[in-house]
């Protein structure tokens, strides 16, 4: 059945005009004034993070409880806004109370009563829910945290500020004015030129100039063209695209409409993994709202431009983040890469010219149009313009989402923004670019983060996953972890990737189990470089990068595994032993916690561990109060 | 257009291994290197398939490229510098081979593929030696073996995932039986939902087996042999009329495997029968000596004894009855040379035109109908042209089962060319499932549906006025008839809703290039000739004859039925359709054959020969390679007729149901055991070559015929089939330009080919029809001869299936084919079955006024209610026990497609 919800062109006569857009923006801005620092209207806005991270630590229950209490207390001036991610995920769930902008962290449902009744009704901030700075001083404003100081939020500018399920809030933030502008004032080729001039490069990994992609698709002849959005974020530890779609979905819709106008497309697809249910849900709401307002459909904003957008769910194959595999999957085919050339800009979805960008790339577009090429150009380095969003993970204090200008150093990200390494441990390496990227050692901490530099030091920007590893991590183990991932995620189409990943993993397993030979390291290195030059797609060509980059910076660790049969980080179970030293006083705690009965000894006498029984679980070390058990 | 052509011909200059070469723009590095004789290894490449680029063994080094590039997928470019065997390339290929071998069973010593395995060959060529085999010591993937199919196995352990099987199954055969399952290292070739291959949509064509580079897809064969023992002979398939080219692989005078060759008609594809149906050749039942029936028992005899027996018996009949009145049945299974000799024997030695063959039962109505309207009764266009048709209209042809390779071509056209398909058939056959418009017409309503479509085209002025004016005659009369017709009434007769008919008519009429494909579903009616002329009317109305990828295309059922007709194995014509009633023609043949007093009247047709035998008008019948007891209508009638003869001689390769009634049986050579030519359904004459010796004393049919001619006093001394062909072509204008040498080198030749510098004719009637202007013959619908009544309340139609061929003389002796469809059955709709309490698999009795058969019930949604379908292959369980010779008055084809019948459930299992 054709209905106006699904097919917005039916409702085109109600379509919004530029004037409507301005009117909505003005009205809504008043509504939201409290969030911009205005205190005059007695309104209170409580922002609760509704990103996936905070949702899984019960932010939904917090919202429910707030609503109940507000209703009970009849607090008509208090609104609750479920926003997207604030970024500081380590401290979620996060609640911000405007107008004071009070920033509460790690809020639990049972804290709600106190926030509402104590803070909002009686002006008494809940101090135990405030975060502390490095000196231990309480910080009650988000902007005062070191975490935000060095960030510049462009792609994330609306995340955590607006209700992503309300198109009017997006419009209030000047949403859809960029689309309005290009439709009114720019020819398609001028839009392409703007993106070219901005220097924006693909944020999905390879960093291909976005404007050139658009130019190729614009120039390609065809009766039908498509735009597509890659939201198949598959790198372990990366979640910037998810957060953008959860926090600011209209930015992507607006950007895709602009791209469609620039290349002459009238249909778009967002390919998003089904493991992102909240993002899918919010994007669908946003698409429905945009259609209902005539911002998708026919004659958008009174122009003769038509565009509609659809969601396609991915089933979670990493390879479907590769652009041609993604196109196959959208078409309903097996998600395996196609040969390139032809490139998607010439022959993409259903064989038609297609612009395919990832979520973060699109999220930059409306801002670039609104604020201008020069404004964007001013950020970043000579060849890498603008900002980049990183998902910080691993052994770092401020696990979360950050957006920084290109060219910032890794040290600034890890220490100034990320808050350094927990438990006083030292930095060993950072993995950027996901499994296709590489490990950056401490010696490169002061390297500026941009596309070229990262490539030079054997890693890559990738989609922006940044996993920090402390000195307890075995780099051979890290390589093995990523190869396990690649063996699972290789699509199996081409020989080098299908079999090469498996064979490298087998060699790594041989090494970590203590059976490695020096020759194995050479074999691995050779095979890894063969995969680089012979695989069909970028996934296969980069699949062995974790091995190549760890070999580049941590070869001594490999050699230690092989020659000395020892794991310097003490992680590889087959190569470590637990031993009780004479610091033991015979308290028996260790033998009590040992799950396999490997520890024997009389009370008040030194105990011993039978290595044949020991499963190296480490429970004894944790139980021992005298540091009498060592791992070596 | 001109610009495009210029681009296509643009020359590119680039260098390969330091040498400057030229190539056409759009060629791949691999194509150019192959032309230059530079050997680049490939696993996943097949010129017929879309480039996959997955195996990576063809990688080459291109100056300036970041990675090595696949030669198969990389197009040459101006100034490109390519290294095909640089150190980097060789190292990469070694590494890829080592990777493949690391996951491959080391069974080369016992692998049947050894010697023609590409992995083994390249492993040897690139020196991936034992040390490198041990390069990786890890896991070898445990993968299942599927041996459910009777003809071949999938041994997934040996699979290197080149994917050619998947692509040929999906992109060329278009059945989608094979695909990939799982991902990465665990990827396997699979069927949908991991069912056994034999339970899925697989049609056992074996094209996957033919392209497999390793031992992963292997035919099941009882004998063991090494590949280098095999001697290959290229020949033409002896099953249906497609004329696929194939290699017979012979070891010790035994065909052990069949491999496809790239012929013009088959593009290196085969069907299950062509690929796997060869074991009849070495079947122990083959006739090895002449047999003479003495006191009801066959006794082995020498050739001399058998021939003398025939001669003496004929003389006795003659002396007792004044004349033995000879008639001959020639064979659509035998070569052109043999058919030529057979009619020469009938006309030249026995002075009679009473010669016919089973084309009478299949396309005599086509020959009569199209000769009348167009001047020539053959398929107008070539098979491969269908790939570029805009619309294909199939009426009365179960194409994917009876002409599987053409069915696959049509599906390729749909997939690659977006060709639209219209199907009209009483059963929802496989092609109907793929159709854009399917019309499940009532059996016998062809003329009504064609008239209804023409009515729409006329009313909506969709016809081709200019073409009609320029190239046809009698259009006025067609208009008058169409104006009289009641469209709604016609739709009611067909049982099709008027809007569907309109859509079909518009789709056909609005196409630039539309081809009609039809077969027995149009021809085998008492109104068959009229049905064919209706098809012709429709095509002419839309200007669809005389151009490429269009036309009227009767699909011929047997390997050489076109040739047998061309050779004059018909009662009314000599070779090339030269009329026996034409004195000048007779004179030409008398002179060439050095005889006088040739019969000047049109002879008897096959059903008339049977009737004449029954009423003793004929005394001596000679049957070459035909089995009328099973193939002809009303089995009991035929048996009675043949038993009434004084002398029945049958020459065949097996003791068929017909041969069992003979007085003398002569052992003949099968197609693999002799030289000659077949003419396929698209008029293409192709060579048949000898691969093995015939068993025992069996002889090529032409040699037997020549012995008999000599025996009856005619001096015939051909030394080879080629000599016969040479004589034939001098007497046959349409074959005059063909020689064995030309046929050997040119992928065959399509008639007409009037001179030795003529390239043959791809499609007929270009510019001018054979008869000058094409003729519209308006036709009115006539109901079937037999209609259901109280005693026989159902309609019954007959036909064929994929796994059996004709009367099962050959396929009935191939185990795998019998495992697939080994017994007679009747198809019916669910309601028809339910009414009689019948469920799928029950034993049921089907009867008609002529007899009854007991067969298995197949209850299928695809059959319309009230209709039964019985295949005719199965002798006493076959349709022809029940059919009757209600003849078309013009061409004498019997109405085999429709009789009345009764259905009963058999009590208690036997």
Spatial sequence of strands, sheet with the most strands of chain A: 12-11-15-13-14
Count of separate DSSP helical elements of chain B? 32
How large is the share of residues in beta strands of chain A? 5-15%
Q: Work out the count of structural domains of chain B.
A: 5
Q: CATH architecture of the largest domain in chain A, please?
A: 3-Layer(aba) Sandwich
Cα distance, first to last residue of chain B? 70 Å
Largest interface: A-B, 31 and 37 residues
Number of DSSP E strands of chain A: 19
Query: What's the oligomerization state?
Result: heterodimer
CATH class bucket of the largest domain in chain B: Alpha Beta
Reported by name, the CATH topology of the largest domain in chain B is: Rossmann fold
CATH architecture descriptor of the largest domain in chain B: 3-Layer(aba) Sandwich
Shape of chain A: globular
Describe the structure.
The complex is a heterodimer of chains A (632) and B (910). Chain A has 632 residues and is an alpha/beta fold. Chain A has five domains: 31-149, Glutaredoxin (3-Layer(aba) Sandwich), CATH 3.40.30.10; 174-377, Rossmann fold, CATH 3.40.50.11540; 387-470, Ubiquitin-like (UB roll), CATH 3.10.20.600; 475-564, de novo design (two linked rop proteins) (Up-down Bundle), CATH 1.20.1440.230; 577-631, Alpha-Beta Plaits (2-Layer Sandwich). In chain A, strand 5 (131-132) and strand 6 form a beta hairpin. The longest helix of chain A has 20 residues, at 545-564. In chain B, helix 12 (364-373) packs across helix 22 (528-541), helix 16 (446-459) packs across helix 20 and helix 25 (606-614) crosses helix 27 (635-643). Chain B has 910 residues and is an alpha/beta fold. In chain B, the strands form nine sheets. Chain B has a seven-stranded mixed sheet, sandwiched between helices. Chain B has a six-stranded mixed sheet with strand order 32-34-33-36-31-35. Chain B has a five-stranded mixed sheet with strand order 2-1-5-3-4, sandwiched between helices.
């Amino acid at each position: 059945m054709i209905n106006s919800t699904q097919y917005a062109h039916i409702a085109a006569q109600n379509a919004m005009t530029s004037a409507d857009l301005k009117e909505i923006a003005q009205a809504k801005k008043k509504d939201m004034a409290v969030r911009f620092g205005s205190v005059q209207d007695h309104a209170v806005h409580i922002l609760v993070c509704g990103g996936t991270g905070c949702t899984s630590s019960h932010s939904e229950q917090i919202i429910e409880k707030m609503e109940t209490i507000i209703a009970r207390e009849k607090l008509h001036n208090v609104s609750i806004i479920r926003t997207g991610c604030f970024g500081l995920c380590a401290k979620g769930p996060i609640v911000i109370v405007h107008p004071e902008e009070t920033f509460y962290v790690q809020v639990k449902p049972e804290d709600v009563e106190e926030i509402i009744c104590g803070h909002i009704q009686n002006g008494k901030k809940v101090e135990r829910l405030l975060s502390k700075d490095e000196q231990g001083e309480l910080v009650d404003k988000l902007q005062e945290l070191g975490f935000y100081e060095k960030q510049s939020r462009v792609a994330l500018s609306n995340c955590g500020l607006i209700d992503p399920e309300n198109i009017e809030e997006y419009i209030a933030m000047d949403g859809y004015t960029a689309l309005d502008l290009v439709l009114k004032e720019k020819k398609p080729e001028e839009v392409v030129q703007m993106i070219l001039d901005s220097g924006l490069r693909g944020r999905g990994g390879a960093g291909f100039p976005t404007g050139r992609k658009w130019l190729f698709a614009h120039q390609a002849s065809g009766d039908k063209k498509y735009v597509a959005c890659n939201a198949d974020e598959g790198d372990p530890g990366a979640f910037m695209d998810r957060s953008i779609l959860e926090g600011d979905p209209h930015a992507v819709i607006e950007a895709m409409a602009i791209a469609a106008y620039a290349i002459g497309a009238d249909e778009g697809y967002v390919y998003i993994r089904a493991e992102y249910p909240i993002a899918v849900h919010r994007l669908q709401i946003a698409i429905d709202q945009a259609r209902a307002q005539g911002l998708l459909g026919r004659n958008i904003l009174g122009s003769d431009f038509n565009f509609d957008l659809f969601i396609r769910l991915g089933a979670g194959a990493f390879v479907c983040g590769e652009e041609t595999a993604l196109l196959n999957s959208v078409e309903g085919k097996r998600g395996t890469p196609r040969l390139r050339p032809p490139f998607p800009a010439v022959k993409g979805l259903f064989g038609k010219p297609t612009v395919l960008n990832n979520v973060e790339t699109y999220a930059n577009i409306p801002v670039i149009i609104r604020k201008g090429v020069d404004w964007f150009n001013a950020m970043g380095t000579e060849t890498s313009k603008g900002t980049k969003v990183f998902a910080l993970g691993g052994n770092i204090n401020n696990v979360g989402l950050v957006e920084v200008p290109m060219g910032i150093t890794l040290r600034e990200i890890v220490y100034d923004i990320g808050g350094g390494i927990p438990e006083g441990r030292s930095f060993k390496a950072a993995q950027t670019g996901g499994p296709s990227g590489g490990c950056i050692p401490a010696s490169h901490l002061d390297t500026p983060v941009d596309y070229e530099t990262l490539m030079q030091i054997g890693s890559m920007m990738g989609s922006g996953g940044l996993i920090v590893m402390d000195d307890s991590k075995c780099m051979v183990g890290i390589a093995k972890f990523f190869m396990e991932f690649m063996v699972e995620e290789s699509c199996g189409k081409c020989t080098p990737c299908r079999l090469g990943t498996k064979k490298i993993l087998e060699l790594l397993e041989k090494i970590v189990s203590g059976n490695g030979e020096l020759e194995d390291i050479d074999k691995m290195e050779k095979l890894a470089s063969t995969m680089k030059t012979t695989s069909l797609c970028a996934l296969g060509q980069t699949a062995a990068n974790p091995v190549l980059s760890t070999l580049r910076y941590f070869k001594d660790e490999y050699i230690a595994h092989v020659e000395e049969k020892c794991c310097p980080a003490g992680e590889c179970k087959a190569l470590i032993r637990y031993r009780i030293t004479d610091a033991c006083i015979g308290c028996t705690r260790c033998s009590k916690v040992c799950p396999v009965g490997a520890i024997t000894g009389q009370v008040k006498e030194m105990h011993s561990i039978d290595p044949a029984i020991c499963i190296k679980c480490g429970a004894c070390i944790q139980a021992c109060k005298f540091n009498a058990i060592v791992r070596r | 257009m001109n610009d495009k052509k210029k681009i296509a011909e643009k020359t590119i200059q680039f260098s390969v291994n330091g040498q400057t070469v030229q190539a056409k723009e759009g060629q791949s590095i691999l194509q150019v290197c192959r032309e230059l004789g530079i050997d680049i290894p490939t696993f996943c490449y097949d010129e017929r398939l879309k480039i996959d680029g997955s195996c990576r063994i063809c990688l080459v080094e291109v100056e300036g490229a970041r990675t090595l590039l696949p030669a198969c997928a990389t197009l040459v470019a101006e100034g490109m510098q390519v290294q095909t065997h640089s150190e980097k390339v060789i190292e990469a290929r070694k590494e890829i081979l080592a990777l493949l071998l690391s996951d491959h069973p080391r069974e080369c010593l016992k692998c049947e593929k050894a010697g023609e395995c590409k992995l083994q060959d390249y492993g040897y060529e690139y020196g991936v030696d034992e040390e490198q085999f041990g390069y990786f010591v890890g896991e070898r993937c445990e993968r299942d073996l599927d041996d459910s199919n009777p003809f071949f196995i999938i041994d997934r352990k040996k699979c290197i995932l080149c994917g050619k099987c998947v692509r040929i199954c999906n992109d060329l055969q278009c059945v989608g039986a094979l695909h990939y399952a799982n991902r990465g290292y665990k990827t396997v070739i699979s069927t949908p939902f991991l069912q056994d291959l034999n339970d899925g949509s697989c049609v056992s064509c074996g094209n996957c087996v033919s392209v497999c580079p390793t031992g992963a897809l292997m035919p099941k064969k009882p004998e063991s042999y090494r590949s280098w023992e095999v001697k290959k002979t290229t020949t033409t398939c002896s099953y249906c009329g497609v004329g696929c080219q194939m290699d017979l692989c012979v070891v010790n005078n035994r065909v052990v495997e069949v491999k496809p060759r790239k012929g013009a008609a088959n593009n290196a594809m085969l069907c299950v029968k062509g690929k796997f149906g060869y074991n009849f050749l070495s079947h122990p039942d083959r006739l090895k000596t002449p047999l003479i029936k003495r006191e009801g028992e066959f006794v082995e005899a020498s050739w001399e004894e058998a021939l003398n027996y025939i001669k003496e018996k004929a003389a006795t009949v003659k002396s007792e009855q004044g004349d033995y009145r000879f008639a001959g049945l020639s064979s659509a299974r035998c070569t052109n040379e043999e058919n030529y000799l057979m009619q020469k024997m009938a006309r030249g030695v026995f002075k009679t035109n009473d010669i016919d063959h089973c084309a009478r039962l299949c396309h005599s109505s086509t020959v009569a109908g199209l000769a009348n309207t167009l001047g020539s009764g053959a398929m107008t266009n070539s098979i491969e042209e269908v790939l570029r048709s805009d619309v294909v209209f199939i009426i009365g042809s179960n194409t994917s089962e009876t002409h599987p390779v053409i069915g696959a071509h049509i599906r390729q056209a749909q997939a690659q060319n977006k060709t639209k398909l219209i199907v009209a058939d009483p059963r929802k056959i496989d092609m109907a499932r793929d159709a854009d418009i399917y019309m499940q017409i009532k059996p016998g309503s062809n003329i009504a549906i064609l008239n209804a479509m023409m009515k729409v085209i006329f009313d909506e002025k969709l016809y081709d006025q200019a073409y009609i004016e320029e190239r046809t005659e009698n259009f006025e009369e067609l208009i008058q008839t169409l104006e009289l017709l009641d469209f709604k009434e016609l739709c009611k007769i067909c049982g099709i809703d008027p809007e569907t008919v309109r859509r079909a008519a518009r789709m056909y009429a609005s196409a630039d290039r539309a081809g009609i494909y039809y077969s027995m579903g149009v021809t085998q009616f008492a109104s068959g000739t009229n049905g064919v002329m209706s098809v012709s009317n429709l095509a002419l109305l839309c200007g669809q004859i005389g151009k490429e990828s269009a036309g009227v295309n009767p699909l011929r059922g047997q390997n050489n039925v076109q040739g047998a007709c061309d050779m004059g194995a018909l009662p009314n014509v000599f070779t090339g359709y030269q009329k026996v009633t034409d004195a000048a023609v007779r004179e030409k043949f008398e002179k060439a054959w050095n005889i006088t007093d040739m019969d000047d009247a049109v002879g008897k047709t096959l059903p008339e020969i049977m009737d004449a035998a029954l009423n003793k008008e004929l005394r001596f019948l000679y049957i070459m390679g035909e089995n009328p007891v099973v193939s002809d209508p009303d089995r009991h009638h035929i048996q009675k007729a043949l038993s009434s003869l004084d002398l029945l001689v049958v020459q065949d390769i097996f003791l068929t149901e017909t041969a069992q009634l003979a007085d003398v049986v002569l052992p003949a050579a099968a197609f693999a055991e002799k030289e000659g030519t077949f003419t396929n359904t698209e008029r293409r004459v192709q060579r048949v070559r000898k691969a093995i010796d015939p068993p025992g004393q069996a002889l090529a049919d032409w040699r037997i015929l020549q012995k008999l001619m000599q025996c009856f006093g005619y001096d015939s001394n051909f030394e080879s089939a080629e000599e016969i062909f040479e004589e034939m072509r001098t007497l046959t204008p349409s074959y005059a330009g063909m020689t064995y040498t030309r046929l050997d080198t040119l992928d065959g030749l399509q008639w007409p080919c009037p001179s030795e510098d003529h390239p043959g004719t791809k499609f007929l009637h270009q510019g001018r029809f054979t008869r000058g202007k094409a003729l519209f013959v308006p036709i009115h619908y006539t109901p079937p001869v037999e209609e259901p009544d109280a005693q026989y309340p159902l309609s019954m139609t007959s036909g064929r299936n994929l796994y059996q061929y004709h009367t099962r003389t050959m396929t009935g002796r191939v185990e795998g084919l019998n495992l697939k469809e080994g017994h007679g059955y009747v198809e019916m709709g669910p309601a028809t079955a339910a009414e009689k309490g019948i469920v799928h698999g029950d034993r049921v009795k089907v009867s008609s006024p002529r007899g009854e058969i007991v067969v298995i019930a197949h209850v299928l949604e695809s059959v319309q209610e009230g209709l039964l379908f019985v295949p005719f292959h199965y002798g006493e369980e076959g349709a022809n026990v029940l059919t009757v010779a209600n003849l078309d008055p013009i061409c004498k084809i019997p109405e085999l497609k429709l009789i009345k019948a009764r259905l009963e459930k058999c009590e208690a299992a036997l």
